[in-house]
Amino acid sequence: MQWTRDSWRAYPIKQHPVYPCENTLKENLERLEKLPPLVFAGEVRQLKKSLAKVAKKEAFLLQGGDCAESFENFGANNIRDMFKILLQMAIVLTFAGGCPVVKIGRIAGQFAKPRSADYEELNGVSLPSYRGDIINGFEFSEKARIADPKRMLEAYYQSATTLNLLRGFAKGGLADLREVQRWNLGFVKKSELHKQYEDLSEKISSALAFMEACGINANNTPNLREVSLYTSHEALLLPYEEALTRVDSLSGDFYDCSAHMLWIGERTREIDGAHVHFLSGVKNPLGVKIGPSAKAQDIIRLSNKLNPNNEEGRLNIIIRMGADKIASNLPSIFKDLKKEGLDLIYSIDPMHGNTVKAGDFKTREFDKIMQEVRYFFEVAISEGVYPGGVHLEMTGQDVTECTGGASNVTMQNLQNRYETQCDPRLNADQALELAFLIADLLKRARK
Length: 447
Ligand code: PEP
Ligand code: CO
Fold this sequence. Notes:
Elements: H1 22-34, H2 41-55, E1 60-65, H3 76-97, E2 101-106, E3 119-122, E4 125-128, H4 150-171, H5 192-213, E5 229-234, H6 238-243, E6 245-247, E7 254-256, E8 261-264, H7 274-280, E9 286-290, H8 296-306, E10 315-319, H9 326-338, E11 345-348, E12 355-358, E13 361-364, H10 366-383, E14 387-393, H11 428-445
Parallel strand pairs: 1-2, 1-14, 2-5, 5-8, 8-9, 9-10, 10-11, 11-14
Antiparallel strand pairs: 3-4, 6-7, 12-13
Helix pairs in contact: 1-4, 3-4, 3-11, 8-9, 9-10, 10-11
Bound molecules: phosphoenolpyruvate and cobalt (II) ion.
The site of cobalt (II) ion (CO) has 5 residues, from loops.
């Protein structure tokens, strides 16, 4: 079938909300269609070029952010701290890998959530599951759980103001390499981790002083004071994505202007489904999550459909199998894929395969997360594949959602600051610690 912005409507679709009133849905979508794009085709092409470098083993991808953004926790401090922690991690990885790090946030649009069950039960009451603030409310009440199309507009405006602040931070001084010490969020002052970061900052400062003496400084070299932080989210809510998909006047191509990069989740990646069909028609760089049940053939089919011209930087295969499964599943997948000569990026999401229940909370253990990352690097290196990136759920705040690491979060104190509306995130200390560990692996991978 010929692709058009709305041709996905003829395909089977999973995880799709039921809106009680067709007319209100239509009205809200018509309003969205008239609103300006959130990102521009030119920026999206720039990201694709950077990702092509990842595919060519010349760069590394760091993608991270909240599991789900929320209307309630929206504010400048959260955005600033997410920006800072991403920058801190990127600098650690850049230094170790000796290569550029492409930075993509799960931010400014990461609102819609796939759910394993359509209904949620609490104290004998069963209600429709929470599907993210762009669809319904988190509160466990009948009213909140009704899908409300007005929420799409609120998500749009929140994304626009988030992007505005991110663009300010990226170009307006906070990203200046001379500020490297100020990015430190430092919850556990004087910890080994922060000492490690301060040592790194000092090395960077001396390198900058040396370069300054040679005439290279932030005034004549914008890369020393500016960064590019791109946005991404799961393209789950297709009416919203359709409304923000626009024709680029320069190329005549369609771009989904809700974010620079979009990905397809593990639950909606069936080859003949609506989500794969929709994304096959837009030019943005794409990701697909690949869980433990996937076979190499599934990835080959997805690649043929989403990246038929085998373009470098177009498709990112995000492996998320779990620490206990990855070592047995991934080697044969890499072996089979290598024979195909596909230009893909391979990255690892060590979060979604390692979620466990701890009483009322969902949590993830730092060691399991790290173990999956380590296996990913080991298997990739031994199969001659480039481990191109990581995909993390994290926050710049001092939350207690994942256990372990050098931080002292335990199963017992999860309740202290458990703030996520969906999956457990690494707090800023855990994220930085993980970055140092990944840095060691990256250094070896790039030798
Ligand atoms: C997610 O990234 O939040 C998510 C739901 O991932 P997956 O599709 O891999 O389960
Ligand atoms: Co998640």
